[in-house]
Design brief:
transferase; alpha/beta; globular; single chain; six-stranded mixed beta sheet
């Protein structure tokens, strides 16, 4: 009998999917790690589980305790699921600009949700810094601190990266994905470089993020903005320190939306906004390298969390982003 022991045991071991329309168009194998099939619906289930387990192993999280986090949504959703499964409480601080679907889902899962104005990281009331202060003021509480908690990238080094290596039989030329905390990109990049130093590790970046310029010039410079949620950064997090950065590709919102709708209409995949950045960057790498290469990226989450924006034609029209 093959029976998983509860929610926690179902995290990970997601399939690798060939993205047929993009692969056929470029002559490359463009593969997406189907992280939307995690039990909490996103790639962040892995980091949420590892951060809670790490706190438990260090004796920082006691029975009945509270997990506090500042999140754009998916990490909070993963934490709320795992807190329910393990008997902890969950308090989430989230920018009010995030999709209403994610905010309502957090409340449905039983998390205490505090929405706050979206302000830059340098502001003391930035949602990340605020969540840290709240955790400090509470008894029997931990701050997950996903941006600088190395349990995040360890989750992907020990699981996601190894799964990708095994699923491709080591036949992979490029690893490319966007970063928010940096955990997914970093953990997989470290594992793959260890296995084969010739694998290119490439950051996919939306407009409004400073990571593209950092990889290209060594300095963080920010231009434009993006409607994507939970990716991009204006600083180098602890998870991204000392990580292979071979190249970077910047994808704008128009290309992101085009990719999202191609995935939906030609590949049958109903995906969230960051997937458009990821697959857009994988497609750009395929065009740059030419046929015959294998490129792996992440299908982070599904489209249901973004229907009021990304799949709302009136919203897209107002942003000038309607797909052709």
């Amino acid at each position: 009998m093959d029976i998983k022991n509860g929610f926690v045991a179902t995290v990970g071991n997601t399939p690798l999917i060939r993205l047929n329309s993009f692969s056929d168009e470029t002559g490359c194998e463009i593969l997406g790690k189907a992280e939307f099939l995690n039990p909490g619906g996103s790639v962040k289930d892995r980091a949420a589980l590892y951060m809670i387990q790490d706190a438990e192993q260090k004796g920082l999280l006691q029975p009945g305790g509270t997990v506090v986090e500042g999140t754009a949504g998916n990490t909070g959703i993963g934490l709320a699921h795992i807190c329910n499964a393990k008997g902890y409480k969950c308090l989430i601080v989230i920018p009010e600009t995030q999709s209403p679907e994610k905010i309502e889902l957090l409340r449905t899962l039983g998390a205490e949700v505090r929405t706050v104005p979206a302000v830059p990281y340098k502001d003391p009331n930035n949602y990340v810094k605020l969540s840290g202060r709240i955790a400090q003021e509470m008894d029997n509480a931990i701050w997950a601190n996903q941006f600088d908690n190395l349990a995040n990238r360890n989750a992907h080094y020990e699981t996601t990266g190894l799964e990708i290596w095994q699923q491709t039989d080591g036949n992979i030329d490029v690893w490319v994905t966007a970063t928010g905390t940096g955990g997914t990109y970093a953990g997989v990049a470290l594992l793959l470089k260890e296995k084969n130093p010739s694998i290119q590790c490439v950051v996919a970046d939306p407009m409004g993020s400073g990571l593209y310029s950092y990889v290209k010039t060594g300095e963080i410079q920010i231009e434009g903005s993006s409607m994507t949620e939970g990716i991009g950064n204006s600083r180098i997090t602890a998870n991204m320190e000392g990580v292979p950065l071979d190249d970077a590709i910047q994808i704008d919102d128009k290309e992101c939306v085009r990719v999202i709708y191609q995935l939906l209409q030609q590949d049958g995949l109903f995906m969230g906004g960051s997937v458009g950045i990821n697959v857009g960057a994988a497609y750009a790498m395929a065009k740059k390298l030419g046929p015959g290469h294998t490129i792996v990226t992440v299908l982070c989450d599904g489209g249901t969390r973004y229907q009021s924006k990304l799949f709302n034609r009136a919203w897209l029209a107002a942003k000038g982003l309607l797909p052709d």
